[in-house]
Write a structure and sequence with these properties.
Shape: globular
CATH topology of the largest domain: C8orf32 fold
Number of domains: 2
CATH class of the largest domain: Alpha Beta
CATH architecture of the largest domain: Roll
Number of helices: 8
Number of strands: 14
Length: 309
């Protein structure tokens, strides 16, 4: 079985001339925005009564209408979860002990969910599988809940920092700006971790947002996960996307929804009316005033998404 989403998201995508980009795109959501101007709005996933089990794997889909399923695995070998919307992309995740959250980012529709166990080399056996019909209560929900790639809870340091940066603010764009500026000024690119992931000595890597805060270092995956956690916890729907940037480099970036703006790009700052296609990884390492930086990250054609989390 081929590893797709989980394997690729672990790769490090570095170019000799740049530190890779983490793009933020602001797009409209109409009247369903969930920005919590009075404080954090942490949604907490939970299991329920609808689930399937097989061998060491359990998949709970009780809250599929909220935009997620949960799965756990207690086996001694490697476990995998695959999620495919009918006619869409297959997402493959590592399964670990204890329940974790996996998003249904392709929206309402019919999904096939399968849990596998490694039996030999790269061969996997099906433990449990089902087809579920999903009607999302709100299209933004998959991008407000925590998940395996953007993992946080009400007690996370990242949530506390997000609340601090958003305190008293009623404009979600200013919250995005505050989070962006903080990350740009306080998180540096972790070249040692990048080298370990690239060499394969660090496998199965998943960001820990509080560890990133404590170390003040991260790779592009870490930047994306940390910012997504901080913004989601403040009720700002945020998509973590992975795909390719110009030149064929695989990378991670963010998209952010607000109620009052459309797609805003081709700038590097907010002038009261326009927002940047922001790139904190790139800006933190290369300087926000570089013409080359502004041109690269301000051009949306440089980014092509493959997976959305």
């Amino acid at each position: 079985m081929q590893r797709t989403g989980a394997k690729k998201s672990q790769a490090i995508f570095m170019a000799a001339a740049i530190i890779l980009a983490l793009a933020i795109v602001v797009i409209p959501v109409g009247s369903t925005g969930a920005f919590a101007s009075s404080g954090s709005s942490v949604l907490t996933p939970s299991t329920g009564s609808e689930s399937i089990s097989g061998g060491a794997a359990t998949v709970d889909y009780s809250n599929a209408s909220e935009g997620y399923i949960m799965a756990s695995y207690s086996g001694s070998t490697r476990g995998k979860l695959q999620i495919t919307k009918s006619g869409g992309t297959t997402y493959t995740y590592d399964l670990r002990s204890g329940y974790e959250v996996f998003p249904l980012t392709a929206g309402s529709g019919t999904y096939t969910v399968n849990a596998f166990e490694n039996v030999h080399s790269n061969q996997y056996a099906l433990l449990a599988g089902t087809s579920i019909s999903v009607s999302l209560r709100n299209d933004q929900l998959p991008f407000l809940y925590p998940n395996q790639y953007v993992s946080f809870n009400s007690g996370s340091d990242a949530v506390a920092l997000g609340a601090q940066l958003a305190a008293g603010e009623t404009d979600p764009l200013k919250v995005v700006s505050g989070v962006y500026n903080w990350v740009t000024q306080n998180i540096t690119y972790d070249t040692d971790k990048a080298a370990k992931v690239q060499s394969g000595s660090l496998t199965g890597y998943l960001p820990n947002v509080d560890s990133i805060l404590a170390s003040r270092k991260g790779i592009c995956f870490d930047y994306a996960s940390l910012m997504a956690a901080m913004l989601r916890s403040q009720g700002i729907p945020t998509r973590l996307q992975v795909g390719y940037v110009s030149g064929g480099l695989y990378h991670a970036w963010l998209s952010v929804f607000t109620t009052d703006t459309g797609w805003i790009n081709h700038a590097i700052y907010f002038d009261g009316a326009r927002w940047t296609l922001m790139d904190p990884t790139f800006a933190a390492g290369s300087g926000q005033n570089s013409d080359a930086v502004m041109q690269f990250i301000g051009d949306g054609t440089n980014y092509s998404a493959v997976y959305i989390y």
